[in-house]
Amino acid sequence: MNRLPMFCRPMFSRLAAALMLAGPLLLQGCAGGGGANSADGQRASTTRIPSDVVNKQAIIQHYIVLARASYEDALISARALAQATDALIDAPSAATLQSARDAWLAARVPYLQTEAFRFGNSVVDEWEVRVNSWPLDEGLIDYVAPSYGSESDNNYFYAANIIANPILDIGGISVDASNITPQLLAETLHEIDGVAANVATGYHAIEFLLWGQDLNGTAPGAGNRPYTDYSLSDCTNGNCERRGAYLRAATALLVSDLEEMVQDWQSGGAAMGDLLSKGEDGGLATMLTGMGSLAYGELAGERIRLGLLLHDPEEEQDCFSDNTHWSHYYDAQGIANVYRGHYTRIDGTELNGPSLEALVETIDPELFVQMRVRLENTELAMRALVDQGEAGNTYDVLIASGNTQGETLINNAVTALMEETRVIERIISRLALQNVSIEGSSSLPPRP
Residue 307: what are its φ and ψ, rounded to 5°? Predict the structure, then answer.
């Protein structure tokens, strides 16, 4: 399948991972800090932009159009995924398993492009943990290899195996999971006992149920769950009926959650209303916050460089399917979509309209060129990761200790994203936007 279009259970302790995290990089208005400097160290002008130069409200309204369309496509693809998983559960075979996997991969394409709408939009950020949480301790859900271990000091439910255990009493918490429903997953199991790694819902829970664990370490190869894990007549690894019930509930819940987010971007919806309440400058600040935070702290730091620093194959975003190279590619594409005011829908429809790019070109042609170059450099770096991934050198292979070519490719992507962020900061400064917070990560080298 030619696909153009998050951090699974870490092998290290969460305390060690927590030490890698940094607080947000705060741009207090446009004065001082890295946000007032270009990539080459020149200070940007802070002259306020005349209101008649461009229709900022039109840019924000088109941003809403892009968000709505992107989430609609994610919903359409999730419904197709639900149909494919239903077919697998109803008639398990190698073909129906492959079709379900292909549908999951296709569903990731539009969803990943929505992630630039997450940061800065609190409605989206609070909702996102239901659909795309990671890392996950997959032993909560189903059987795992002995190397996974049977307990964790930080998580009583680390190896609870809900599919195999209808009734649980762990750490003083009783769970009746005899009937696996979307409500059980969402209201009881997801982040049970207040542990974020107890991910019971969303894309990555479904990914695990389709691929199973990737036990290849830093060697090529993804998870290899057999289709007979869903067969009632030739069941492997036990509890096949309950495994099918869990998969059916998880996909139904994903569809429901995406339906909610599509409504949130309609007129009168929570996300749309919150954005418009911020005013024109607040709306532009939200757009740039999403771009910068995804590019810098989230993508360059937590999703790409952290795994290289630890040489840990569990630190990849789509760790069961080895789809991580495409995930990084489409996250970067989502940033470009927001900036350019452009989105290609899954049916091929092209959406174009008033954009930050046009605003920047009007007020500062030099800055416009800088951002165009940075986006192109990021595209090239991400394409290099994709080319390697499609050739079998997936992210978990590239981060292996001693893989100097992989280290170079990954560092090229990180550098491109960091340089892109520096220009985003210049744009923030040039537009005289106040109190913009771009999330950081101490897995990245110190910023100049």
Answer: -60, -35
Mean pLDDT score of the chain: 88
> Two tokens at 251?
């996909």
Confidence of residue 446 (pLDDT cuts 50, 70, 90): low
DSSP string, 190-242: TTGGG-TT---SSHHHHHHHHH-----TTSS------GGGG-SSS-SSS-HHH
CB 444 within 8 A of CB 301: yes
Q: How many CB atoms lie within 10 A of CB 162?
A: 24
Q: To which residue do tokens 């092209």 refer? A: 350
Query: Exposed (0-12), middle (13-18) or buried (19+): which is 18, by Cβ within 10 Å?
Result: exposed
Domain assignment present for residue 233? The answer is yes
Is 380 within the bounds of a domain?
yes
Using alpha carbons, select from 54, 64, 120 the residue that is nearest to residue 360: 54
8 is a domain residue: no
In a domain, residue 379? The reply is yes
416 lies in which domain range?
14-152+156-438
Q: Would you list the DSSP string of 66-86?
A: HHHHHHHHHHHHHHHHHHHHH
Whether the Cβ atoms of residue 209 and residue 145 lie closer than 8 Å to each other: no
Number of domains in the chain: 1
Q: Which pTM does this prediction carry? A: 0.88
Residue partners of 78: CB distance under 8 A and separation at least 6: 107, 111, 251, 254, 255, 258
Instruction: Tell me the C-alpha distance between 177 and 168, whole Å.
Output: 8
| Token duo for residue 282 | 């607040």
- Minimum mean pLDDT range among 37-51, 129-143, 374-388: 37-51
Q: Which residue is listed with tokens 């207040």?
A: 194
Nearest residue to 292 (alpha-carbon basis) of 327, 344, 331: 331
Convert 131-155 to b/e letters by CB count within 10 Å (16 or more is b).
bbbbbbbbbbbbbbeeebeeebeeb
Higher pLDDT, 118 or 23: 118
What confidence tier does 53 reach under pLDDT thresholds 50, 70, 90?
low
Q: The domain that contains 407 carries what CATH number?
A: 1.20.1420.20
Whole-angstrom distance, CA of residue 116 vs CA of residue 107 = 17
Distance CA 424, CA 422 (A): 5
d(CA 203, CA 223) in angstroms, rounded, equals 15
C-alpha 100/C-alpha 96 separation (Å) is 6
DSSP bridge pairs for 209: none
How far CA 178 is from CA of 85, 155, 167, in Å, comes to: 21, 22, 6
Residue with tokens 């024109």: 280
